[in-house]
Predict the 3D structure of the following.
Amino acid sequence: MRRGDGRCAGSLVWTSGALVLVLAFAVGPPASAQQLEPRAYAPSPTGANFVGVVYGYSTGDLLFDPTLPFSDVHARINSTGTFYVRTFGLFGRSASVTATLPYTWGTVDGNVGETYRRADRSGLADASLRIASNLMGSPALSPREFAARKPATTLGASLIVKAPVGEYDPSKLINIGTNRWTFKPEVGLSHPAGKWWLELYGGAWLSTTNHDFYGGQVKEQEPIGVGQVHVVYTIRPRTWAALDGTYYFGGATTVNDVHNADRQENSRLGATLALPVSGRHSLKLSYAKGATARVGSKMDTYAVAWQYFWFDRQAEAAKP
């Protein structure tokens, strides 16, 4: 709480009798921490390209420090984005790079005291780039070699970089973009057991300082630790289902050197289904639900993604 000026410098601000809701609870790094991504470290043959479109809808409550006068705060967030993935060999290991450009629109409403307020926003969100490489158990293989391989335990590592290109206006507290760089280093372990795979990931979201936060303030955020677990069952080639879980913690913010009571300790559960459609087209359906939440969002999320893949000419010639 920013003392002496009647302003809460956390995720809600009470200014001139109006409630201003920060959409960052729904579309910023906390939302990224909520993501459930089974098979994120699944090996692929080199020379593969994937392009697709994803749409997601999230709805649910935003939770705040109970000492603050906010109640019945609810968010309805839509997001869509395009992505491109390419696999390649890196120092003899299987690796990939993924680029994503999202667009978000949504509504947040709620009460401050007995007064109802609503906020609507839409625009480009921060773009992201992910670089991943297997460290153990998955050498770089051509499609022919990959088809003949025996599944093995793999250990991978990745780095996600989010660039502050999303819509941002420092005169408004509600913004789609975050006006800061965000990074997520992570490691992932995958272990096969017949048609089953057990996956464990661990990482953290790290954010730079926003030096132009609402009204020219300086906003900092502590790291958000993230753990994921996935149990995946392969029904047949390119068709699989997964049960997913994640737990994330931390992320307390500081505005102008004043600490806010907004540390998160939240968990989510979900399920994912991947289906081939025809030829090189496929769909991925997912659902996730907030299981526990201390501060932040506790939302239901529904998502569908379409994907098309192809091989480079050299890799195509090496197919079995």
Summary: Residues 1-30 have pLDDT under 50 and may be disordered. The longest helix spans residues 29-34. Residues 19 and 115 are 8 Å apart (CA to CA).
